[in-house]
């Protein structure tokens, strides 16, 4: 077993994951995960996949994949030209692009024909209605209408005053109470951990979103009790009412795609480095 494999295995064991659990999290076959721990890279198809699997393994157990690859690069196989070629998508030729454009034009041609047919029918119907004798204007028949007079007594001063008071009461009811704005104070940053103090509200709601890729989320309260430890997928935000919590630690595995909100107000990460911790203290 290599030093890299030993470190990965220790991190997995500390998380309480089995090889099967890690396979479910990373979607990497467990035989590849076991071979990474043993340092047996010959069964993995190519140096590019070796590095990619190790990075994904590390991030799943809370380690920095890029730092591990740089630290133990001497233990890893170097990528060949063939591996690099696998990562570069083939550029379609002009003939292929032209064929696609032609096929697309042929697909929309029936819709164009139908649209022209409908327009022609509308023009024909409109022309026939213009030439129809029914459209000729007939002489207007004047009829005498009785003249009516609306005699309304002018409002008294008391009535006008009452109306003004009612309008003022309605305007006061319509006015909405201003939503209090939170105050964020950064106490400091030490290593991977930044500490904030949040004030300005009686209740607090935590929300975490992944914008373009999934991210690993671990939440602990002031008693170091784990509240959440799993993936947060794109389009499925994680929300938690933390009103009764004095402090919460938010550990994020993929900072660049992650947004953390308190009462829908964004909490800034000091850097894009992953993983990273946010310790949030609530002042009620």
What this model shows, in words?
The chain is an alpha+beta fold. 40% of the residues lie in helices and 21% in strands. The chain contains eight helices and ten strands. Strand 8 and strand 9 form a beta hairpin. Helix 4 crosses helix 5 (65-71).
In short:
The chain is of the alpha+beta class.
Q: Trace the largest sheet across and list its strands.
A: 1-2-10-7-4-5
Number of DSSP E strands: 10
The major sheet is characterized as: 6 strands, mixed
Approximately how much helix is present in the residues? Answer: 40-55%
Radius of gyration: 35 Å
Average pLDDT taken over every residue:
81
- Output the CATH class name of the domain at 183-283: Mainly Beta
Overall 3D form: flat
Outline the secondary-structure elements.
Layout: H1 3-15, H2 19-26, H3 30-38, H4 47-60, H5 65-71, H6 81-87, H7 94-131, H8 157-174, E1 183-190, E2 193-199, E3 205-210, E4 215-221, E5 226-232, E6 238-241, E7 247-252, E8 258-262, E9 265-267, E10 276-283
Parallel strand pairs: 2-10
Antiparallel strand pairs: 1-2, 3-6, 3-8, 4-5, 4-7, 7-10, 8-9
């Amino acid at each position: 077993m290599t030093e890299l494999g030993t470190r990965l295995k220790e991190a997995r064991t500390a998380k309480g994951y089995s090889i099967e659990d890690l396979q479910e999290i990373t979607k990497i076959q467990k035989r590849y995960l076991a071979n990474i721990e043993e340092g047996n890279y010959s069964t993995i198809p190519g140096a590019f996949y070796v590095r990619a699997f190790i990075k994904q393994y590390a991030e799943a157990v809370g380690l920095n994949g890029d730092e591990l690859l740089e630290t133990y690069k001497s233990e890893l196989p170097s990528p060949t030209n063939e591996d690099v070629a696998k990562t570069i998508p083939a550029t379609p030729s002009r003939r292929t692009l032209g064929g696609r454009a032609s096929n697309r034009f042929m697909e929309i041609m029936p819709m164009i024909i139908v649209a022209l047919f409908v327009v022609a029918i509308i023009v024909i119907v409109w022309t026939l209605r213009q030439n129809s004798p029914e459209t000729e204007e007939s002489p207007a028949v004047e009829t005498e209408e009785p003249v009516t007079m609306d005699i309304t007594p002018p409002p008294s001063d008391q009535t006008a005053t009452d109306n003004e008071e009612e309008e003022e009461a309605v305007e006061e009811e319509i006015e909405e109470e201003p939503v209090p704005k939170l105050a964020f104070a950064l106490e400091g940053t030490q290593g991977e951990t930044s500490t904030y103090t949040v004030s300005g509200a009686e209740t607090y709601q935590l929300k975490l979103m992944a914008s373009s890729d999934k991210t690993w989320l671990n939440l602990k309260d002031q008693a170091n009790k784990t509240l959440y430890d799993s993936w947060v997928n794109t389009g499925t935000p994680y929300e938690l009412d933390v009103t009764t919590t004095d402090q919460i630690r938010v550990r994020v595995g993929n900072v660049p795609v992650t947004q953390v909100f308190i009462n829908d107000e964004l909490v800034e990460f000091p850097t894009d480095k992953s993983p990273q911790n946010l310790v949030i203290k609530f002042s009620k």
